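pasting MFS transporter, ACS family, pantothenate transporter for the record, 495 residues
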Amino acid sequence: MSGIQVELETFFWGKPPTNPKERKLLLKLDLVILSYVCLSYFANYLDRANLANAYTTGMKEDLNFKGNDYTYAVSMFTAGYIIGQWPSALILSSGRISPRFWFPFCMVAWGICTLGTAWATTPRQVWGIRFTQALFEASTFSGSHYILGSWYKDHELGKRSAVFATAAQMGTLFSGIMQGGIVTNLEGKNGLRGWQFLFIIDFAITIPIAIYGFLMFPGTPHSTKAFWLTEEERQMCLSRLPHSAQVKMTPKTLSGSIRKLVKSWRWYLFTLLFTFSATSFEKVGVYSEFNLWLKSAGYSKQQISYYPSIFTATAILSTYILTLISDHTGNRFIINPIMFLAVFISSITLLNWNHLNKGAHFFAYIIGGLGYAGQASNFAWANELCRDDDVLRSITLFSMNWNLWYQIVAWPVVDAPKFRNGQIATLITGGVSVIVAILIQYCSKRYPPDLPKLEHDYEDQQSNDDNDNHFVQVSYNPNSVKNERQIDVENKDLK
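structre below
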């Protein structure tokens, strides 16, 4: 490859391996692992986002939602999500149940729940279905970040985490477009309402993805028996990453991991970081404020379905661009104040509600899309700093999603569309999340975790002959995503 090609690939996708065999392996991992986690998260968010689309296009009236019934439905989902995270965290890091089976099983389960929503007749039935659905959906987001951290190096992780995170927004984007088409073409067909077709189609999309995962997903590097990986590639997967030894979970090993977890600043601070940042920076999508404003402003069902796609497209583009900045500068922290600035502008604008025209409303909601970049950069940050213990890493990643209380207190649907209390709360929690990010930055330098060393680094070969392969011993620097570039310079000097 030419120097320009390498620089472009490094900037947009991460530094390519110099060893041809590792380069081929990385392509395989992207084609299967990254494709599956993106498809599963796409389906996950498609099922999740469609409640808001269904609610604003007929479900509210058909099922007689009143008062805060919709808020309770969302909160029941959050409650199930929080509860479901703990068993998934332990299952994925236990070494006893392969993610190859766990992820597809959970997909089938939440797909069935999604299908059941189409025949709900009361808000309480929706509450129960959403709670059960969330128990299984809880495996996907943090679990996929855990899997990405198990297969990819730090300098490979950020951009792939961004692609994964944008899969959720693609699900939201597709949901709105799909609902607009359903309202236009399927409303009333076979005696079903448009919002019912929405959940039926969701189910039809989810199941094939689950089957694909069962057939192709490799699990973890320590236990994989994937047919598309050679034995040499399986060994390469283990040796190219600074993983600690993988053991099957026992009461003794679990207690050791828990002791490490409670003594470490990482679990406390990363849990606080995403708990506060998600509740504030993702406000436009999580609390459906754009959709609810469009409904209150008298827009048509098709417009309510299509217009939020502009916000979603902004979230997709900004997540990838901000992750490029994070990777290029080697600074995960910097994304947090950028997100806060964007959401600060959004909330301050909407607090001046009586002085806004429609263009200002659109601007305030669309700029909020920048708040989704933390799904990639902050989870990559946690992955990088928790490599010394798989249970600690898993529990930390899954713990970064606690926000049950927040919507009930600050964003009840009876406050729609102004959500004055929610906008004020966003300014506070957003500021707190930046302070927590500063503390993580400080602690990672003042009290760096004792991370495992990288055992081998594959160097560019003069020959593709297997007998010519050699390894260079290097140390692993957890505080910089530029580590691999520094290693290359040092190894060239040795030569």
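Residues 459-495 have pLDDT under 50 and may be disordered.
The CA atoms of residues 152 and 241 lie 7 Å apart.
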